[in-house]
Each structure stands twice: as structure tokens, then as C-alpha cells.
Write a structure and sequence with these properties.
This protein has 593 residues and is of the alpha+beta class. The protein contains 16 helices and 26 strands. The strands form 7 sheets. Strands 1, 2, 3, 4, 5 and 6 form a 6-stranded antiparallel beta sheet that branches. It has a 6-stranded mixed beta sheet with strand order 16-17-18-21-22-26, with helices on both faces. A 4-stranded antiparallel beta sheet has the order 13-12-14-15.
Length: 593
Amino acid sequence: MRRRSLRFVHRVAVCLLLAGSAFADDRPRAPFDAMRWVGDTVEVRVDASGWVRLEAIGTLTTDTILNYCREQYGDRARKRFREDLVEVLTGLGAPPGETVSLRVRDIATNALRTLDEVAMTAERRQNLWQQAQQSEPKRADPRARTISRQAAREDLEQLDKRLTDQWSYLKRHPVDIRGNLETLARDLPEQVRVADLASDIVRLLAPAGDGHARVERWEGYLPVGYLPFLVAPFGERLVAFQPTRDAFVSETHPYLVALDGRPVADWLEAARPFIPAGSPQLVEQRATRLLRHVAFLRAQLGLPARDGVRVTLADQDGARQQVELALAEEKPLFGVWPRRANERIENFGYIRVARMDRSQPSAIRAALEGFDSTDGLIVDVRGNLGGERSALQTIWPLLVPAESPPAIVNLAQYRKAQRFRPTHLAKRALYVPDYRGWRPDDVLAMDAFLATWQPEWQPPVIEFSFWHFMILRGAPHPRESYTRPVVLLVDEVCFSATDIFVAALKTLPNVTVVGMPTGGGSGYARPGKLANSEIDVLLSSMVSYQPDGRLYDGNGVEPDVRVAPTAAYFIGGEDVQLNAALDLLRKHAQSAE
């Protein structure tokens, strides 16, 4: 890469320092003791001081933060700003440390001042949550709301029309989804609980294998009563650990084997009907996460409700231990994992990409510039659930020489529907062959590709658009690119745009993918709210393929080198996947000497 000015290098260093705190601590925390809204203005109180108007947190203005929340979370923007500020700031590329600076304006005098090193604490966030529960008008609990049988049938008729006209996965598997929907409508009681209807819809959609199909905020319909700890798959076992990620539930017995005396396999079996029938790793990972909803799964198993849970744990040799724990009233969150920052390890660069959002392009460019002189690079996307494709569009030309031929990294078709315009897939950087933005060599590449390419499943031609292509190429101007070895770290949580990212980079000769197979999913889900129940149902509108012809849904991306984590990884212990990546880079560096 070209050397940049000293000013640019300084700016890069600042970016890297910001990134360095990105994943040090993603627990829910806040810097305010109280918060209130005056129109669209945020007023806060810190310590014993009076109310002040919040103008900025660090370098981000309040307007910037609120606009991001509105774009990402819609009508939940204020709630996310108040209760999930760490996640919001991280999504904007400015993850907070233990303290932040606040720029505030005195309400009486209009004077502007800065509060430095204001502590971000879990206690403050809890106080804000409790204040909101007491002061905000209560919305109707979706768990208690009911509608008539006729209203529910009207909603199911509306859903049936969407399935028939718009859903790209309706005919993917030989499952009679619409027949099951008719049975559901026929057997409804006179009064229908909206929460039950939401769960019935989730169960109805699951067999189609659409990893994006869901009821939006479905878990909010489920009864309160959660495991007070987190669980993750670990080979043939499940590891149980504290939400703080600093310890197992039992130091000597880390593995979960039973709940309330029932083998954990029974609980997973109760969860699976609500999980899309995708890749084995996606089903396992999502079913395991659903274990947190003990109260809901007890009902599925026919077990009585109670306030506690009897947890059976095992050690490495299978010796068991039982503990009785109280159920949690708030669902424990997995958060961003691993919590690592961009850094130089030996003479190798490490870049952490935890989300696929608009903050990533500038962060990736800055990090690569800072790691220009390294002998190798690690790009860590573990735990990344997807989002936008801009990270891939940014990193590709930085790893590929300018003279490289165009590369087809994704093919897709969308379901023809009046709702979808011919440019429906443009937001996914996917275009038809007669797109005016293609270059002559792009067109030649598409023709040659289609001459031999075979899709795993060919959707009904009359119901789908023509093939759309995502094509990437090197930088527009000749320059030195990063051609030294790159290791991409992946796991089962990787999904959607992260699947695209991994499959594309895997085709490059200097990239080795290490870890576990990704979850698998690429569907461009579109929402649609049912009129009477107000249940918001998301359905995929496209089918999307890897360069080798396999669908993302149902497969995921296989790593070049499989490396499973150890149990200690989930609480910040030894990271054998990262160690394997470093070993690969060391071998490359030694062979190059």
C-alpha cells in the first residue's frame, strides 16, 4: 500500500485506538443517573447535578446517535438509546470504554460544557430501566392480548396471500405449508391469544428452511421466566456460563446435562419446531439459545410452571452436580463475542469485524492501512450476525490486485411480486446481466460463469426473476494490495451478510478460512404486519447462492480448516481458533524467509 501523509497516519492511529476499546466490555451500561425526553431533545442527570441537555457522547452528536437508532430500531429507538447504549455506540463505530465524555448544555443559561470521564456502569443502566418502567405509559402486554377467531382467520388469509405471492421459500422443500396454515385456521378457538398465534406462525414457517423468516420480536410474546445463565454448543456438549462471561455456572462442572430432571436433549427437541430447518449448525445454535426461555419450553414439554429451575451440570468425566437457581425476570444476553480489539500480534495484524454495518468500511480501511507492514492478517468475524454488504465491498479491493479479473461472488433470484420492483436486489449489490453499470469484462465473466454453473435448487422459472449477480473487482487505480496471507476466523453464529463475506473471501488464493461452519442464510427478508393481531411477519424475498452453486440456507460456508473452540473460550479463556490462525501465519512467514 502507498504510504500516506503523517496527518493521515495519525488519523488512522486514532481510529485504531477507538477500535481498541470496541469489544472490551459489551455489558449493558449507561453514563446517566436519569433521562427524560422533551420533544425530541434528550435531557439527562449525572450524579447530583441538575438536568442538562445532552448534546454529544464522545465525538458523536445526540442527533447522530438518535438518527441511527431510528434507522436501526424504528419505534424502539428511544428504548434502545436508553437501555442499549453500549450496543448503539458500538454499531456507530465508537464503542465506549469504562468512561465517556459528555457534552451537555445548561438548560437555564444555555452554556455548553464537557463532562469528562463519566463512568459507564451497569447500575446506572438498571436505574434508567426501572425509571422507564415506572414513568412511561404501559403498553398492552402482547402476552395477554386476544382477538376473535374471525379476526385471526382474516390475518391468516392475509399471511396466505403473502406466502403465495411473495415468499421465495414456499416451494423449497416438499412441505405443505399452505395446507398446514388451513389446518391452523380451522382449529382456532373462539378467542385467540395473539402470543399463541405468533408462536403458531413461527412453527408454521420453520420447515421451509428460510433462516430469515420470523415473527419480529417473537420472543417478546413468550412468557417471562428465563435461565439466569447462558448456554452454548460445545461439540457434543453444552457449556453453561454466567452472562458476565467471566465464569462457568459451576467452576468444576461446566457442562449442562439436564433441567428440572429432564435431559437437555428433551428441551432442545421442544425448541426445534420453532427453528428454521436450516443447516445443522444453525438449528443447534438457535435451539440452544432458545433454552433461555425456560417458562415457554416448560409449557411445550407439559411441565408445571415454577419460579426456580433445577440445573444438572457435569464435569469432564461426567460426574454430576445439581443446583437450584431462581429464574431471571430479564433474559440474559449473549452480546458481542469475542470481545477483542484490533491489535498487532507479533508481526501479524488482527482485525475484529463484529457487525456488518455502516461503521465497518472506514474501520477496515484504517486497520489495513495500520497493518501495511505485517507478515499476515487475521480477520475475525466470529459472532457476526450480518447486516450490510459494504464491509465485503470495502475489503475485497484491498486484498485483490487492481488487474484481477472480475469475480462473481453471489448469485440470486427474487420472487416476482407486484410489491417488488425490477431493482429489488440493488440494495444487496445484485444486478441482472443487462445492468448499465457493468463493464464489458463483467458481461463476459457472467456469460462464462453461467455456461457451467449449476444451482443446488432451481426455483420455478415463471415465479422468479432472472439471475442477479454480485461482482467484485480490484481497486480502480493500480496500487500495491495486501497480498500476504490472510486467515478468516468464523463460527456457527455467522449469518446472512457475514455468510456472503466469508464465501467470497474464501475464493481468494491468499485467504484461509479457519473455525466452524457458518450458520447459512441469505434471503433479503421483507416485513408485513398482519392487520388484526399486528404480528409482524418477515419472509425472504430471494434465494441466494454461493459461487459453487450451493444455497446459503441449509448449508452455510465450510471452513478450510475446522477448529472447534474449547469450553474456556466462552468465558474469555484460551482461544484455540485464534491460536490456530497464528500458527498458520507463522508457518507462512517461515516458508517465505
